Amino acid sequence: QLQLQESGPGLVKPSETLSLTCTVSGGSISTYSYYWGWIRQPPGKGLEWIGNVYFSGSTNYNPSLKSRVIISVDTSKNQFSLKLRSVTATDTALYYCARHVGESHAFEMWGQGTMVNVSP
Amino acid sequence: QSALTQPASVSGSPGQSITISCTGTSSDVGNYNLVSWYQQHPGKAPKLMIYEVAKRPSGVSNRFSGSKSGNTASLTISGLQAEDEADYYCYSYVGSSAFYVFGTGTKVTVL
What we know:
heterodimer; A: seven-stranded mixed sheet
């Protein structure tokens, strides 16, 4: 049974870099046709797509976040990561990692999410 | 790329059918059959309910169905049950410039 688990600091200071890792277990991250994505949800608000990465390292980003985001993959550890620089309070959110099916362009499996607060 | 437009809330009585709309433009929803729908209960991660407009993943109740007409995709829940009370989001591929966008979300209330 594939599982995804987010990890990282729950508190980040303004102007610093938010760093999260998603560990994939029960399956290989290097599987053809599957992308791996990050989605966030500010408290009480809706979902926002951040970006996806393929095991080759190819990425797609939300244009509104592209200048601050890097998503990378480490196939040796079966992990992928999110870095969001120059954070502000508006980046406070529940961050989810998920598996994105290439052909259907849908997130078929999600992690439980990890809350990140941006505060001094 | 703006979020796809959904009604903020939809309600229905047990046993009834409800429909949630997801409106985009001819450049996104209207141009691709790549709309998916997610159910999110409070405090839980979203769950895929429909993909490619109308396909249901294994294990999802056949009370959930999807469709699309023009620039609007729809999720219909038939035989509404108390457990269907949740937030629902649409999500679509919108092309190679912006790639993907979620809908604004709809809160479904079972009366």
